[in-house]
Amino acid sequence: MRIRTITSAEDAFSAWYETYHSAHVADHPTGPRYSERELRVIFDPSEHVDAKLWLAEEDARPVGAAKLGLPLRDNTALGEPEIWVRPEARRRGVGTALLETLEGAARENQRTSLLTYLEGPADASQTSGTRFFEKHGFTRRITEIARVQRPPFDLDAIAKAEDEARPHAEGYQIVAWRDRVPDDLVDEYARLEGRLSTDAPLGELDYQPEVWDEARIRKIEERAQRMGRSAWSAVAVSGDGTMAGLTRITVHQDSDEVGFQDTTLVDPGHRGHRLGLLLKAANFRQVLRDRPGIQAIWTWNADSNQQMISINETLGYRVEGWAAGYQRDV
Questions:
Q1: Phi and psi dihedrals of 280, rounded to 5?
Q2: pLDDT tens digits for range 170-206
Q3: Distance CA 95, CA 98 (A)
Q4: In the beta sheet, which residues pair with residue 144?
Q5: Domains of the chain
């Protein structure tokens, strides 16, 4: 077996992607997955994270793919490994050989901890991936539940929930937009994004606060455009101009197949006003206005985050899978 390094700019990345795709479909058939275009952009070098890629081949035939994410601005002791092996090539040592390669690269880059996220369907608590990483000493530190909102959407129920919530949110203004964060809001937006890495439930993960600023926000926006994704956002602004909460949904520009509810946060000092529900409902209506044919919106919450789970269920999200964070020292 040959294991070689590649980049997302090479022609060989197409073989890497096909390997990733075949493994993902085998382990989570109904789960969302990235397109080749999106992953090429995600793995581009940046000042925030370095993504190193490997392709495993037997007789010039791709059998395994791997990635090691190396955060560069925060969590710099962390390496983020991901491994995919084609179903027909499993249980032959491909995954183990790739993991050993990733471990060596992590040590070379002075990383002391490895953190990986794995996904699976609702009807299976384990996948080949979770069993593999547990065999190699990783422990599950957090479990998130994946929920999906699909048509027909119960807009009357959502409107009723909003009507019940509004009296609790007097003094707050909901501001919504598409794609670029307005210049007059970007500093506050970055402040709240930074809080997400400390305020969101982390289970037993060893994870440090992230550093967010306008430059990071603008870089993510630019990357989303290259990926072919649009983003809809809504924020709650208090009477003194402080941003109290935010939420965001992203959808591919060329497909209504799937969207991602990927960020929601209410500042701890502003909780208790039902801002989470009002933000998510307002933003969802914004998405439906522009993309009425959307077929699914996925979201993930820690299984301990009962407040956000309740909001999501009120909005019509239903359980369809899970994600689990596994961690181990190098």
A1: -65, -40
A2: 999 999 999 999 999 999 999 999 998 888 888 899 9
A3: 5
A4: 302, 323
A5: 2-137 (3.40.630.30), 149-329 (3.40.630.30)
